[in-house]
Predict the structure.
Amino acid sequence: MSYNSSYSPNYYSMDDILATQERIPCKFLQKVPRMGRLNPSTEENDLKEGTDLELPLWLAIDCSMGRQPVVAPELPKIFKENYREILKADANAVDLHKFSLYFYELGSYVKGFDHRQEVHNILLHTFITRFRLIMDLANNSESDPSIQQKLDMLERRIYAAGHAAASKLNKWLLESGAQLEAAVLVTNHKKRKRVDDDLIGWN
Amino acid sequence: MFAEKACNLIKELSRNEGVLPPYNMDLVKEVCTEIKLLDEQNKSDGAAVANESGIANYSNELYPTLRVGVAAVKRNVRCLMAYHYNRLRTLRTMRWEFGSVLPPDVKANLNSNEIEWFSKYSRSLTKYMMSLGDEGLNLGVNLRPPKSLYIEVRCLVDYGKYELSDGTVLLLKKDSRHFLPRSECEELITQGVFQHIV
């Protein structure tokens, strides 16, 4: 069971909320009175025109729209040329989790800031290259579990779904799925309880 | 930074996937206060901007401030809504998996509105299931095609007395084994009281 994991424009999606919390570099195009506290490095009351500041994505998107944008967002460094080269060289070798927890979601938001479509292409390239790796992992779960740590959140969900499907299929082939089982939430609840009881026992 | 606290609410939920963490009343209240403060400020800024007419609106000095303020309120509201909505979704799944009675430690994590919602949801669900067919239909059972009418089960907990639909009363003790009609024990298996032995 997972919380709602569908993507934008889903208002309630927690993944989308967490992805739009990532900070990206921005430049202020207008003076913003009384918002000096957005910038921790000064004590002035007003935010000056031309200030460079890292803003959360939701604020940057909201303020860069319209006829008179307040800020001009820039590409985060993980989508800049240097990093794109790394991904082009071998996307499989990269620890995407370290790049960003929400690499693809963030990418699909910021790809609009880059007019040459480079970000668009690198997102596709990365996903296509790494998809085979994820599929392999999901079907052979006995292999090294630490490799999971290198996946970003979207890839982790795909991995978990693939893994669950593979084990369901196996079970059905072996036992034709006749056994009745406790619900997932119930089993989780019991496991937690066992841990809690153990802790109390120790004290 | 704006909406930091609201985002912490969401982070808390996403860390606890599959269980319900205690309802974070303190943080919710703090977020509400932040929204109120921002809203008051937006109102006064908005009044200043609205005083000028037409295109001059955009050139008002306070216009950018107003935009930032409104964005922050929208974000805070979104986080709050998502927090409550996603909790309810988990709660709804729990109704199907735990049955109409929640374990006490789960119940302790809910706030009073959520408890009320749960009992209302539970009631409408029962009402709906009673309205199906002639005698009602329990949608929580027979999720997998049955292979036999009777199955063997082992009891995992000291459950106490349990009455079958034909009136027989069983004493369910831990590790006792029973041979029962499948329809009688399916729900108890889902709730983790029985284990199905194949």
In short: Chain A has eight helices and three strands. The interface with chain B takes residues 1-4, 11-15, 17-18, 21, 30-35, 38, 56, 58-59, 62-63, 67-68, 70, 175-190, 192-193 of chain A (CB under 8 Å). The longest helix of chain A spans residues 153-175. The beta strands of chain A are 23-28, 52-56, 71-73.
